[in-house]
Every structure is written in C-alpha cells, then in structure tokens.
Amino acid sequence: MDRIVITGGAPLTGVLPISGAKNAALPLMIASLLTGDTLELANVPRLADVQLLLRILGNHGVDHTVVGRRPGESAETGQTLRLCASTIIDTTAPYELVSRMRASFWVIAPLVARFGEARVSLPGGCAIGTRPVDLLILALERLGAQIEIEAGDVVARTPKGLKGAEIVFPKVTVSGTHVAMMAAVLANGTTVIENAAREPEIVDVADCLNKMGAKVSGAGTPTIVIEGVPRLGGARHEVLPDRIETGTYAMAVAMAGGDVLLENARAPLLQSALDTLVQAGVTIDPTNAGIRVARNGAGLDPVDVTTEPFPGFPTDLQAQLMALMTRAKGTSRIRETIFENRFMHVQELARLGARIRLDGDLATVEGVERLRGAPVMATDLRASVSLVIAGLAAEGETTINRVYHLDRGFEALEAKLTRCGAQVERVRG
Ligand code: UD1
Q1: 381-393 vs 243-256: helix axis angle to the nearest 10?
Q2: How far apart are CA 352 and CA 378, in angstroms?
Q3: Nearest one of 25, 14, 87, 12 to 263, comparing CA atoms
Q4: For ligand 1, what atom is nearest to the CA of residue 175?
Q5: Which ligand 1 atom minimizes the distance to the CA of 174?
Q6: How far is ligand 1, taken at its centre, from the CA of residue 130, in Å?
Q7: Cα(139)–Cα(109) distance, rounded to whole angstroms?
C-alpha cells in the first residue's frame, strides 16, 4: 500500500487550486439515475470515490464518458463526465460495492422514484462510528414507499408511484435530505421537508435538479418545498468548489506558515471555519480569484469550537483543526456533536508529540512547542489529512501509512502541496 512521507518545516507559498466538492459530486452523479437523458457534470474531482461510484452506476446500466481535456485544463482541474441512464438493467446495488462507500446507498431514492423498485444493501459499519440509515428510510416511507429488509438489503417498492408528503426530520441529516429531495422530485404532488440540512452541497444538488426540470425551492433553508414532476431531462452542471478541501489547505498554511491563494475557493461556503482561523491569528483575505491565507512567524492562539450542521463549524474539518491546535499557545477545546467516535486521529497525533485529552465528545488540546515526525496510520478520510497537516510542522519525517483514505477524498494532494513548497512524497507500496 502507498505511503506518504512528509519532511516538516517548509512554509507554503503560491497558488493552490481547489477542486470540485466530493460531497456534491457524489449525489449529483447519483441524480443521473433520475432521467433517461444525459447529465453533464463539470469540475468533478478525480477521486477514488468518484471512480467507485462510476462502477456502481455502471452496474445499474448507467453509461458514462469522460470528456476529453480542454486547453488550460490540468490533472488538478477536475474532469467533465457525461452520464446517461437511458436503460437501467438492474435496480440492485450489491453489498461488495455499497459497503465500500456509504453514499452509494443513496441510489435507492432515484431508483425507486423512477422505476418503482430498488434493492440496496445496508451499508454496514464505518470507521467513524455508527452511521444509521433510519432517517433515509423514514423519508422514503413518508413518500409512500414500502420498505422491507431482506437478506441484509433494503428493498423499496412503490407499485403506485411515490406521493408528495410532509417529511419532518427529527435531526439534521445531509444524507436524509439528499434522499428525500431526490425521491420527491418525481413524486406525485408536493413534498415539504422540514428541518432539512442546509449544507451548500444540498443547494448545489437542488440547483442541478432544477436545471433537469425539477421544481425545488428553499434549498439552503430548513424548509425545502418540492413540486413533483412526471419526468426530468438532461442538463449541464458545474460542481461547486470543495469547502472541506478549502478549509483543510487553509489549516495547512496556518500550520506551516506562509502565504497561499486557494484558487476558486469561496468564503461563504465555510465562513465559520474561516472565522475560527481568524480568531487563531491567521490572515484570511477573500479575493475575486479565491481566498488568500497567510500566517507569519507568530504563534497561533487557541480556540473553542463545537461541530454543528451547516452553517456551523463542519465535523469534516474537526480533525484538521485539532492538528492545527496541537501547536497553539495555550489550551483549545473541540467538541464533536455530529458523529460519535470521530476521534481516531487523537492517538496518531499523540505519536507526533501532541497532548490531547478525551472526555466523551470533548477533546482538550494543550498546545506544545514542537511536534516530531513519526510513522502514523490513517484511519479515515479526514483523520488522514489531519496527519498530513501535523506532518507539515513536525520536525523530521512523518510517514503516513494506508493513504488510500486520502485518495478517496483529496484530488492530487501531493502535487498541490509540493507546488506550494512542501516536501511531500508518495512512496508506492
Ligand atoms: C455527510 C457527508 C460527510 C459529513 C456529514 C456531516 C457526504 C457524502 N458525506 O454524511 O462527509 O461528515 O454529512 O456533515 O456528503 N443519522 C441518523 N440516521 C440516519 C442518517 C443520519 O441518525 O438515517 C445521523 C448520523 O449518525 C449523524 C448525523 O445524523 O450523527 C448526521 O449524519 P448525516 O448528515 O446524514 O451525514 P452523511 O450524509 O452520512
């Protein structure tokens, strides 16, 4: 298995392009199942998760082509995919594929909405605690689907088609909101989703659905209203920039010091994380081209942060912030309220010399003078990249094992960091 070796100490300078958002690209690709016409998606990041989802969609009968590169495009500027689900040969998503990427479970919504039947394996366990699908099932049931669990699969059937309904989520869920929205666009009548997730990726998917002919309003607020339509058509849509990648590299610059333009990044997508960085003493300067992030030699101030649904501080940046705070001048408190057991990076950061105490959902991070490089193990996507951030400031060499997690979610990570002056190398295993 590949490893990444980082020699810490180099400041970051220059321009670092931000890719399309993984968490929007995946549901957008899944939305292609809603129509027999072609959905063209631009700015899709080149990630292992995207490749895996193409395989899963291919298994259902979705044809895809990757549009050839245009002048000015590079390996870091994303790709354009054309997806066409004109003939679906199989409405079953098997365990071997779904268990490798939880978001693939979401295919259940467009399949049942368009074909009246879907069989999707229950996704099973995941490295960041239990991530149930009960609220996704609740949403489909509210819309009139009959749900049964058969041999580890969720089987959804709607002999008479889906019917618009009121769906009130007892807690904010991104996956639940995507599933409810994708099913309701083809339902008969009006659906109102209450306590909907407000994440920018929900808004991006709603925009794309509307281009396909859907009638979705209110995305980005807690109440989404959807007037069902009988069919959707093709469209072209560009995936919005990745706010988690943006926040991650902003923290990398804050950690290593330097001055970097995060090209294409948009500040309103991650205002709360940027506010936290400003509080820590980082210079954040939104420009027309992106967001400039800078830190001179001065130390970082500690922060108190609680993860929350959007627009709060995102759980997907919690591990990276913790890595950053290991070097702050004082004690930070970081509370994780979205996922239980999302602290696996703590033990690995400790191997580099970090001082972190865990007490339930609260991590108390006491800043230390220096980190020292060591071999560490990546355990999930965001945890892995927190180790990269720590490695950028650790003395000597940090070797990150099991980097396939990084490849799932960060496009051209070594290339992007290297071109800003970091010493990062991939060792093929
Ligand atoms: C998505 C993101 C993930 C991010 C998370 C929270 C994608 C592909 N993944 O994950 O990167 O960390 O949002 O911002 O977009 N829950 C239930 N029952 C359900 C569904 C969820 O109890 O049926 C709980 C979860 O266990 C969790 C909380 O609701 O505690 C939020 O989960 P959710 O927002 O659905 O996260 P995902 O969509 O899985």
Answers
A1: 20
A2: 13
A3: 14
A4: 38
A5: 34
A6: 10
A7: 10
Distance between Cα 173 and ligand 1 center (Å): 5
Distance separating alpha carbons of residues 24 and 44, to the nearest angstrom? 9
From ligand 1's centre to the CA of 65, what distance in Å? 30
Burial of 125 (0-12, 13-18, 19+ CB in 10 A): exposed
> What is the distance in angstroms between the CA of the first residue and the CA of the last residue of the chain?
4
Residue 126 annotated to the active site? yes
Q: Write down the pTM of the prediction.
A: 0.96
Distance 54 CA to ligand 1 centre (A): 22
Ligand 1 atom index nearest CA of 173: 34
State how far the Cα of 33 lies from the Cα of 57, in Å rounded to an integer: 8
**Rounded distance, CA 229 to CA 72, Å?**
39
Atom 22 in ligand 1: residue holding the nearest Cα: 132
pLDDT in tens, 365-411: 999 999 999 999 988 888 899 999 999 999 999 999 988 888 888 99
Cα–Cα distance list, 111 to 33, 106, 164, 180 (Å):
7, 9, 16, 13
Confidence of residue 128 (pLDDT cuts 50, 70, 90): very low
Q: Are 179 and 162 in contact (CB under 8 A)?
A: no
Q: How far apart are CA 111 and CA 421, in angstroms?
A: 46
Instruction: Give the Cα separation of 24 and 242 in Å (integer).
Output: 8
Express as a percent the part of the chain with pLDDT over 70. Answer: 96
**What is the Cα–Cα distance from 306 to 328, expressed in whole angstroms?**
17
> What pairs with residue 356 in β-bridges?
365
Ligand 1 pocket, Cβ-based, cut-off 6 angstroms? 23, 26, 103, 131-136, 171, 173-176, 197, 314-316, 338-339
pLDDT at 219 over 80: yes
